[in-house]
Amino acid sequence: MPPIFEAQALRKVYHTGELDVVALHGVDIQFHSSELVVLLGASGSGKSTLLNILGGLDTPTSGQLRYKGWDLTGGDERTLTLFRRNCVGFVFQFYNLIPSLTARENVALITDISRDPMKPEEALALVNLEHRMDHFPSQLSGGEQQRVAIARAIAKKPEVLLCDEPTGALDVNTGIAVLDAVERINRELGTLTVIITHNADMAGMADRVLNLKDGQIVSSHRNEQRVPVSSLKW
Ligand SMILES: Nc1ncnc2c1ncn2[C@@H]1O[C@H](COP(=O)(O)OP(=O)(O)OP(=O)(O)O)[C@@H](O)[C@H]1O
Questions:
Q1: CATH 3.40.50.300 describes domain 33-61+83-231
Q2: How far is the CA of 215 from the centre of ligand 1 (A)?
Q3: With a 6 A CB cut-off, is 49 part of the ligand 1 pocket?
Q4: Cα separation of 17 and 23, whole Å?
Q5: InterPro entries annotated for this entry (predicted)?
Q6: Domain map (residue ranges) of the chain
Q7: pLDDT by residue, tens only, the chain of 234 residues
């Protein structure tokens, strides 16, 4: 099977005042359909930069990124907008839900503008929140709010789910429920999933574990078997 993403010599330089910060130093990597990939690395190693480029939120300074053979780096803003809207779901550390809307309404905001979405109820059931659909964010725990954010990200049935520190603001037990939801979506929908974390204990849940250091992928390890999230040692 051809890869979903194919990155070649990706380089990203941020210019801030007098200073140039090289965030990515020539990254070559492929991501395949249905994979669950955990991306590890110290603070500042370039994880978010890589994820943002994969998701079309940022563009590389040089190098090439292809999505299903489609050149995202040569593309114009309209191409990137269509790619983001139709192909990618994002989950961030902070949930960014709209406080005046219920869980169902927060998800419906996205399904209303998508091409072939699932129903908000279906997306919320996938993250085990069917009993909380009519609650407002303030009536939900941090982990439940993050699960609403995951439901919102996947309700449009994206090919790719990108998660930047999805459990960064949560305690261990709440984080487990969130990762369980992400793993289930990957398994049941076959969504290519990339998760950034500082927590090396999460590596066991992945098909593949990448380590970034100083803007380069310094190791790539494939797990023979995925460990269920509930059995990971924290
Ligand atoms: N918008 C920006 N402007 C200038 N420099 C930036 C910008 N975004 C990131 N950087 C720099 O690029 C490097 C890589 O940052 P990045 O956020 O990708 O790292 P990270 O591995 O995700 O870090 P963390 O784990 O702390 O989130 C860092 O040195 C960072 O300071």
A1: yes
A2: 10
A3: yes
A4: 16
A5: AAA+_ATPase, ABC_transporter-like_ATP-bd, ABC_transporter-like_CS, MacB-like_ATP-bd, P-loop_NTPase
A6: 33-61+83-231
A7: 889 999 999 999 999 888 999 999 999 999 999 999 999 999 999 999 999 999 999 999 999 999 998 999 976 888 889 999 999 999 999 999 999 999 999 999 998 888 889 999 999 999 999 999 999 999 999 999 999 999 999 999 999 999 999 999 888 888 999 999 999 999 999 999 999 999 999 999 999 999 999 999 999 999 999 999 989 877
Residue that the structure tokens 């992928």 belong to: 217
Residue 53, CA distances (Å) to 13, 47, 63, 167, 210 in order: 12, 10, 11, 21, 16
Whether the complex's predicted ipTM is more than 0.85 is answered with yes
Q: Which two tokens stand for residue 97?
A: 């839900």
Query: Which of 208, 60, 185, 89 minimizes the C-alpha distance to 129?
Result: 185
The residue to which tokens 């500082």 are assigned = 198
CA 181 to chain centre: 13
* CA quadruple 156, 95, 181, 211: dihedral sign: positive
In terms of Cα–Cα distance, which of 36, 42, 84, 35 is closest to 59? 84
pTM: 0.95
Residue type for position 146: Q
Looking at residue 204, its amino acid is G
Beta-bridged to residue 30, according to DSSP, are 6
Q: Is the CB of 14 under 6 A from ligand 1?
A: yes
